[in-house]
């Protein structure tokens, strides 16, 4: 499967190779043989890899295609796929705000991240909490609120 190999290639700094493997994944997805649940995860992983590879426009395409928004509600059961999707959404919106110097979308993402912080604290999921707080600090920084960003990092 190209996705794990693409992830490994990106981790090793071989961005072009990782992106080439993502194109191979497109061919497999086009056959229609991949179940929807796996395809949704693969699409999220692809957006994550594209973002890490500096392909913001392509990652934004994923946001529009999956129709996810920062103010979407989430399942109160721990759904790692949903967490990964929503954290990837937050990363794309934060990166877009940085790229365009336009904080549009950060308010909804901050609300989403706050809900995940509350969820993680209630259940003692410290790893999820730290990841969420780090993204929240980045969102505050992109919105120009450095003091709130620093205070959020202290919580992590």
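^ structure tokens above, recovered residues below v
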């Amino acid at each position: 499967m190209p996705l794990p190999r693409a992830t490994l290639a990106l981790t090793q700094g071989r961005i072009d190779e990782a992106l080439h493997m993502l194109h191979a994944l497109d061919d497999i997805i086009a056959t229609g043989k991949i179940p929807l649940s796996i395809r949704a995860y693969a699409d999220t992983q692809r957006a994550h890899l594209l973002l890490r590879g500096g392909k913001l426009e392509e990652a934004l395409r994923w946001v529009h295609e999956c129709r996810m928004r920062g103010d979407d509600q989430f399942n109160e059961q721990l759904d790692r796929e949903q967490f990964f999707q929503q954290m990837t959404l937050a990363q794309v919106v934060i990166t877009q705000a940085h790229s365009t110097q336009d904080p549009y979308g950060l308010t909804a993402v901050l609300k989403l991240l706050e809900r995940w912080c509350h969820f993680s604290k209630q259940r003692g999921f410290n790893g999820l909490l730290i990841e969420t707080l780090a993204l929240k600090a980045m969102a505050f920084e992109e919105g120009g609120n450095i003091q709130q960003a620093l205070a959020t990092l202290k919580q992590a």
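The CA atoms of residues 26 and 55 lie 16 Å apart.
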